[in-house]
Amino acid sequence: NSWLTLRTHLSLIAMIILFGVFIRYDEESDTHWVETKAHENITSDIENDFYFRYPSFQDVHVMIFVGFGFLMTFLKRYSFGAVGFNFLIASFGLQWALLMQGWFHSLDPHTGKIYIGVESLINADFCVAGCLIAYGAVLGKVSPVQLLVMTLFGITLFAVEEYIILNLLHARDAGGSMVIHTFGGYYGLAITWVLYRPNLHQSKRMQGSVYHSDAFAMIGTLFLWMFWPSFNSAITDHGDGQHRAAINTYLCLASTVLTTVAISSLSQKTGKLDMVHIQNSTLAGGVALGTAAEFMISPYGALIVGFFCGIISTMGYIFISPFLEKTLKIQDTCGIHNLHAMPGVIGGIVGAITAAAASESVYGKQGLINTFDFTGDFKDRSVLTQGGYQAAGMCVSIVFGVVGGAIVGSILKLPIWGDPADENCFDDEVYWEVREPATHHLLFTIQPLGGAIGPPPLPPPPTTHTIRSHTLPRWLCTGTEHCVLNSGKMLIY
């Protein structure tokens, strides 16, 4: 805890200094907007990008803090860590992301300043999403200090691979199938592979879910599912591109739900549904359509992508996750390989094929230029070449995720970060003040079958047996006993 306090205070001081040196408002959020309107003959404030982007920003922001946070509350005793540490690393990460992305994308060479607006906030949230995905792989097994270190390096790696993919290769990835999900997925998997715990079975009693924890996790699923069209369309071009991305994602997600339910039911001998599949695999379509969301994939094409993603993701939870843990020693707590890594790769492949198959007859000449941004240095690029660069972008994201994750995992493996012992993983009590539920006094009498039940006599001094209130055993009584349940203690008279 002292490490955490020191680290957060130093991080805050560093952020304040760096923001003071580099960060400024852009022209649409500065008070000089009035002069900009007059100079550019803008007649209304509605032309300010805030009014186009802020609704999408709100949706993405909810996904980051509520969606991702609650999705990870499925563990029976790690809800505080899921939501609380998600809150911590997202808040730290978005500040570092504004700086890192600013240095790579919007640093003014004349003034040396980074100018931020509402689109910068969206991109910072996207950057944080990659680290939150990685958090899912190590959920319950690392300390908050390790999470901050993982986020620091993750944001840095993200900014570099994003610059290579989007600027140097000029690949299109509006919803981040490659840049966010593929990178974040393999980054987390590589870290948890390096941090493999051979004795993690000592915490197996805490690794499962209970009825109410799965219900809370579904809150995260529903927030993510509802707002994913905003996620994939948030930074696309105004007008038809943004409109098309929302429609395609909407249809793809709906299709994914149907196939996930079908495969989940078929996988069980009883035909019942598995809540793990419903919480996670129903979102895989949104991941897979991120790259091609703004392309002319057509509505039925979006349904096809969702159909296959529901199957592949659900089968991943049934077959691939156990294989990865048993054979490759990858302990993936949340199954991010099935929700983010595999669907991200599928998204990259779909994007490459869709780009290579684009034609002027479908897009129109200007539509083709607008969709793939064939301007400036890229004005002579063909759609086949674009498809090749899309595939190259996917390879870059995998390499950065795997290699970067292995290096960061090696740093996190150093015995200085205060990570929990094998027997204390997946338990909030290691890092959180867990208050017991309100005191309840229950006075009752238990007699053998056929005995008369009457008012209890005055009890003798109690003998106290301390036990977990949520693991109370069944008591076999041979006579009259009086029990008081008080803050997790069974008092036997």
UniProtKB/TrEMBL annotation:
Transmembrane segment boundaries: 7-25, 57-75, 82-102, 114-135, 147-166, 178-196, 208-227, 247-266, 278-297, 303-324, 336-358, 391-412
Statement: the UniProt record of this protein carries the keyword Transcription regulation: no
UniProt topology in membrane: Multi-pass membrane protein
Annotated GO biological process: ammonium homeostasis
MF annotations from Gene Ontology: ammonium channel activity
Pfam families hit by this protein: Ammonium_transp
GO cellular component, one term: plasma membrane
Primary location recorded for the protein, binned into one broad class: membrane
Compartment(s) where it occurs, according to its Swiss-Prot or TrEMBL record: Cell membrane
Domain Ammonium transporter AmtB-like: 48-430
Gene3D superfamilies reported in the protein's UniProt record: Ammonium transporter AmtB like domains
Task of the protein: Functions as an ammonia transporter. May play a role in the elimination of ammonia in the gill.
Family: Belongs to the ammonium transporter (TC 2.A.49) family. Rh subfamily.
Protein name per Swiss-Prot or TrEMBL: Rh family C glycoprotein
